[in-house]
Design brief:
heterodimer, A: about 400 residues, seven-stranded mixed sheet, 13 helices, 10 strands, about 40% helix, about 15% strand, disordered N terminus, B: about 400 residues, alpha/beta, Aspartate Aminotransferase, domain 1, Aspartate Aminotransferase, domain 2, three-stranded antiparallel sheet, 15 helices, pyridoxal phosphate (chain A), Aminotrans_V_dom (chain A), PyrdxlP-dep_Trfase (chain A)
């Protein structure tokens, strides 16, 4: 299937093979529109084949340095719970890190002797430079303490979850390495959403979900461990091949249905029909335009000042008057309202002094879907604002 | 009502093949390793799997927890424990690691393991010893056949000998199989648990093979931790097991994957969501129980046990050898049959890997082969889709293979 006769990439105005016509290849019922691809992903119905080499190719790494695991949480636990932290080590993380990841860091600090956290508070909007400066400031502050401790490892999002922002990982990785700090990149949202070149980025560890943006079945992710660290890293469930070598240890970690991992191949095949460039370009453009459109309907703005901080997800500000309203502080009210009254779901959250929703653009969506979503949220916001005096 | 036997299989035997998913010309002699499931269970799996895709957020955020609790309740009733003492995990290795990597072993702790313990489990104990200061393993050499009494006595003697040393160390935990893997022997877990408890030792039961093969009553057993795979003998899809943790230990046991619920929700919320997975595999336990209910557990267990006993004897007769244990209660659904390989120390021929490849390539069968107590054995799994004639056939295949190799 070719893109267009002129070879131009699909856009919301000229979707080519994308948009609603692609719905038939996914598994939604007729009347459901998926706006939250970012949380749990989706997959098309095709046959299966072999995987690790294909993923290694996508990531520009040696297949022997990759392990297939179930998800990012497993990948993070694998590294953090087997790495030999020593008393006096500090682990650096950002306040915007994903909750499971931050909790795993907490766990490690709770259970290892004299291993503590250094958290960098981050509030968007920030430019790339402001982010890098904030992290460097935290490192220098820690150095000035001169308490004999050292920052051993940093866990950094490539694309954060809520809010969803593409972070300056190249500059951050170089900065951290210049201070002798190991770098673990949480790339949960990266594969299939942005190009990933781990040879260029050269982190110590990287984890990326395939079941989010790559379209494979839930329970499929890829963990990269730099060769020099591999002897230290063991699976969360120790297998018969313990201490044989990295590749063997991670090749079989107990009985499971490998269908999820094997589906990665068919996901890659599906994507080849259109080409990575077309998929990424369309989704990205749709995210930018959809976000702007929704901001206009709501009379607000998107969180990110720079377009390159947006991939396929956009955070749109919701003009709630009173952020202390229990309907907003509740973890389930807005979720239930969206699902029950409107048959949709998008994450919504407080960040800094404002409230945002996060939209995910995808190849099965069109601009009209975002008009609808904007109007839904406007109604929700107006209804709740009407309650306040 | 008479229960099915190899002579009178009733609803079982080859007529069951149409309910399963095997290739036409393949006979599965090794149900014990990775299990298998009938078509109706696969349909149940797909029901859950497809339902999730209709609306992923609704599924994960609103429906999944209750679905998992429903399945947990079914298992709790089946193995007689409180539903709140059970959590679903992917497999025994994950369950064992959840327990062993959560326990705060301290210097001087010793861990008992059996030489017949499963590879990954003993490796997990090795990992614990590698990563904790002055925590060591004491391995008890167990060579069958032994009576139950001899097994209990052997382990108790190890404990007593160690106490006599008075070196400041203490046995903290014992890892005991309910049914060992290779060889497949049902161990006297109740007397062992009681004996170990009398010395203040925690008891972790690797019951990987137990559920669906032997009746389980966890309230009666009163062990400290029990892990069992539903995807072996219960007929659910691979990636479905349960971990039993009594309430008194729950606050200390964390999953191998830490999530948002850490120090927030506690034991059950921590284990209910271990990151994004296709949870359909765990939920297929529902389909497994529905399938079994058609025949009843008594019928399934009686048939498979008798087939293992008679099938094992038939093979031993063909080979001119013997089965590992003749004690009926030590046999579940698996028979260990001796192979009369002449030169068992031959570097090439007498390695299990070589023979395994040979049997697969030439005969399209697979039955695990292993060395135990100075002899070569094969382990054969009985199942409702097998008949005595299958064991006779396998006996002849093994005889031909052994004669050729000798």
């Amino acid at each position: 299937m070719t893109i267009t006769t002129t070879g131009a990439l699909p856009t919301p105005a000229n979707p080519g093979p994308f948009g609603h016509k692609l719905r038939s290849q996914f598994l939604f019922p007729e009347n459901y529109t998926q706006f939250n691809h970012g949380s749990f992903g989706l997959f098309p119905k095709v046959e299966m084949a072999k995987v690790r080499g294909q993923v290694a190719e996508l990531l520009h790494v040696d297949a022997d340095d990759l392990a297939l695991v179930e998800n990012t949480t497993v990948g993070v636990n694998t590294v953090l719970r087997s790495f030999k932290f020593a008393p006096g080590d500090r682990i650096l993380r950002l306040s915007t890190g994903y909750v499971n990841v931050n909790k795993t860091v907490d766990f490690v600090c709770d259970h290892a002797q004299e291993v503590k956290l250094v958290e960098v508070p981050i509030t968007f909007p920030l430019t790339d430079k402001e982010m890098v400066d904030a992290v460097e400031k935290a490192i220098l502050h820690h150095q000035s303490l001169k308490d004999g401790s050292r920052i051993r490892m940093a866990v950094i999002d490539w694309i954060s979850s809520v809010p969803s922002i593409v972070q300056p990982v190249k500059q951050l990785t170089e900065l951290l390495k210049s201070y002798g700090i190991l770098v673990y990149i949480d790339g949960a949202h990266t594969l299939g959403q942005i190009p990933v070149d781990l040879t260029d980025l050269d982190p110590d560890f990287y984890i990326g979900n395939c079941h989010k943006w790559l379209f494979s079945v839930r329970g499929s992710a890829a963990l990269y461990v730099k060769k020099k660290h591999q002897h230290l890293i063991h699976p969360i469930a120790i297998p018969s091949d313990y201490k044989v070598n990295f590749a063997s240890e991670f090749s079989y970690i107990g009985a499971q249905d490998f269908a999820s991992l094997l589906s990665i191949s068919s996901a890659i095949e599906f994507r080849k029909q259109f080409g990575e460039e077309a998929i990424i370009h369309y989704s990205h453009q749709l995210a930018l335009e959809g976000g702007q459109l929704m901001a206009k309907i709501l009379g607000t703005n998107v969180l990110t000042p720079d377009d390159h901080q947006v991939a396929n997800m956009v955070n749109v500000r919701l003009p709630f008057k009173d952020l202390s309203n229990p309907k907003l502080t509740s973890s389930s009210y807005l979720m239930n309202l969206q699902m029950d009254k409107y048959g949709i779901f998008t994450p919504s959250f407080r960040h800094g002094d404002h409230f945002y929703m996060r939209l995910s653009a995808q190849i099965y969506l069109e601009l009209s879907d975002f008009v609808r979503l904007g109007n839904i949220w406007k109604e929700i916001v107006d209804d709740i604002n009407a309650e306040s005096p | 009502m008479t229960l099915p036997t190899p002579a009178n299989p009733g609803p079982f035997g080859h007529k069951q093949r149409k309910n399963f998913l095997f290739d036409d010309n393949f006979t599965n002699y090794n149900h014990g390793s990775y299990g298998s499931f009938p078509k109706s269970v696969q349909e149940n799996l797909l029901k859950w799997h497809n339902h999730a895709e209709l609306n992923p957020d609704r599924w994960v955020r609103r429906e999944l927890k209750d679905a998992l609790a429903m399945v947990r309740g079914q298992v709790a009733e089946y193995i007689n424990c409180d539903v709140d003492e059970l959590v679903l995990v992917q497999n025994t290795t994950v369950g064992i690691n959840s327990v062993m990597r959560s326990i705060e072993f301290v210097p001087g702790d010793r861990i008992i393991q059996l030489s017949t313990g499963y590879g990954a489990v003993n490796k997990t104990i090795e990992y614990i010893c590698d990563t904790k200061k002055d925590v060591k393993v004491v391995e008890i050499q167990l060579v069958h056949p032994q009576t139950d009494h001899e097994i209990v006595h052997l382990i108790e003697k190890t404990v007593q000998d160690h106490l006599a040393k008075k070196d400041g160390s203490r046995f903290r935990l014992a890892m005991i199989d309910w049914i060992s893997s290779a060889p497949a022997v049902v161990l006297p877990v109740k007397p062992l648990t009681d004996m170990l408890h009398s010395y203040g030792i925690l008891v972790c039961i690797d019951a990987a093979h137990a559920i669906g093969q032997v009746p389980m009553d966890l309230r009666h057993l009163n062990a400290d931790f029990v892990i069992t795979n539903c995807h072996k003998w219960l007929y659910s899809v691979r990636g479905s097991a349960v971990l039993y943790v009594p309430k008194k230990f729950q606050k200390d046991i964390h999953p191998v994957t830490i999530t948002a619920e850490y120090k927030v929700g506690g034991f059950h919320p921590e284990f209910a969501w271990v990151g994004t997975l296709d949870y359909a595999n765990m939920l297929s336990i529902e389909g497994a129980f529905a399938f079994r209910a058609q025949y009843g557990d008594a019928a399934i267990m009686h048939y498979c046990h008798r087939l293992a006993v008679e099938g094992g004897q038939a093979m031993a007769q063909i080979l001119g050898t013997n089965v590992l244990t003749t004690l009926d209660h030590q046999i579940g659904f698996q028979a260990n049959v001796r192979l009369p390989i002449k030169d068992i120390d031959h570097s090439k021929i007498a390695t299990p890997e070589y023979l395994i490849e040979y049997q697969q390539d030439k005969y399209n069968v697979f039955a695990p082969l292993y060395k135990h107590g100075g002899y070569f054995w094969t382990r054969v799994s009985a199942q409702i889709y097998l008949e005595l004639s299958d064991f006779v056939r396998l006996g002849h295949i093994m005889k031909e293979m052994v004669e050729f190799k000798n």
